[in-house]
Amino acid sequence: MRKSQVLKILFVTSEVFPLIKTGGLADVSGSLPAALQKHDVDVRILVPGYRSVLSQLDHLETIADIKHLPMIGQASLLTGTLPGTAVPVMALKAPSLYERDGGPYVDTHGYEWHYNGVRFGVLSRVASLIAKSHHPLLDWQPDLVHCNDWQTGLTPAYMKLVDHSKTKSIISLHNMAFQGCFPENLVTNLGLPQSHFVMEGLEYHGQLSFLKAGIFYANAIATVSPKYAQEIQTPAFGFGLEGLLAKRHLEITGILNGIETDVWNPSVDEHLAKRYSIKSLNKKADVKSALQAYLKLDNKPDAPLLGIVSRLTYQKGLDLLLPHLQQLLNAGCQLALLGSGDRTLEKAFYDIAQANPGRAAVTIGYNEPLSHQIMAGVDMFIMPSRFEPCGLNQLYGLAYGTPPVVNATGGLADSVIDTNKHTLSNETANGFVMSECTSEGLLSAIQQGLHYYQNKPRLWRKIQKNGMKLPLGWDESARSYYELYTQVIETTD
Length: 493
Ligand code: ADP
Prior knowledge:
This protein is of the alpha/beta class. The chain is 37% helix and 19% strand.
């Protein structure tokens, strides 16, 4: 591995913590670049200039005006630093695209922005321009562009087909379920060659697929866990792109995400009533008691408290909990849920909370402090995802001494080790893994957890500590990305 040379990486993303976040992609974008800086990587982030981005960036200044952009004409590039870090961020200021009320992908009513194709097509266009050899835009040219998910998927297409760039690209797949498919007319409107709107190119079932474009034209593909790298090559997880992915299997690398240990760490977490560490795990009980009080749950120290922080969608598999939830509450369990998404699921959990005051607390919405308090205050974290490219919440659970109960998929399978005699004796047991992805499978994994929690307190402590001991930070993953970047940069086409 070439260690002497500084690698220049443009990291393109549609969300980055703490500037803007809807899910795990923001967490990764907020922490991987800082971790890469420790490995001699000159990394700069490119993100849309949403209002919350422009208002939070430190030392903001305009560095370039960009002309002749498809559909919108011009935009400007501002630079600043990510709060709390030394990571440079370039924000693409295009008010008509990004400075609107609503979220990064949806309007105030929760509907997808109808012009998302333009919003993220332009972002991808600018990423490619920054990567272009001798482009007068900046006096900085990356060796490689690291794209993330469909929102940045057209970048490798622009680099290959329009700019004929020598710069390499990779695309990280954080979730194959979201592909960014738009009508064919966007191809020419966005300045891409119509001749490449074919199956061996940009086209996917008659539409322009941003994700497919990224997978097709990038020099390499990364997934956020090794298991997901395998899974997406099968029909059950590939969302129609499994064939293309299987063809490119030699160029796919799975690297498990790390977590931001300055933020997600019970010994420094400012959101908690009490801080604790592996050496003072008994203080976790105080956090539980504060959470019970805050959520108006009965103040019962011994009641097994199950926690959920999640998007409430089919992917997350939380509907699997519903058939047995009343039974678990009747048996003395409590529930603390924070999440939002599918209205039917929201209502189903809300109704359970209404019927079980003091035993089930359901908070619909997005609440960063409460997510920390739940992670620390509950006894088990429930995450029965049907598919999970990496998943961060189970990693947070491990770090907080809150054993996760998970389905054996993607990053969950790569990080949670089921508890049994063997894994207890080799000190790897750190959670509970469902033997099948069904309601019964989930119930039985929870019951397994309850068995240790209620009857084997010494072993329970061991399970908690096995998780807390793991090196969950970004260091190892950043090293793997460094190796991947080097390998891709050194490969000749
Ligand atoms: P995904 O990106 O698929 O939603 P991950 O587990 O990778 O799932 O990451 C989810 C991130 O979003 C975590 O940081 C989690 O704490 C956070 N999160 C999800 N829902 C909420 C919510 N309702 N309130 C606060 N944080 C949330």
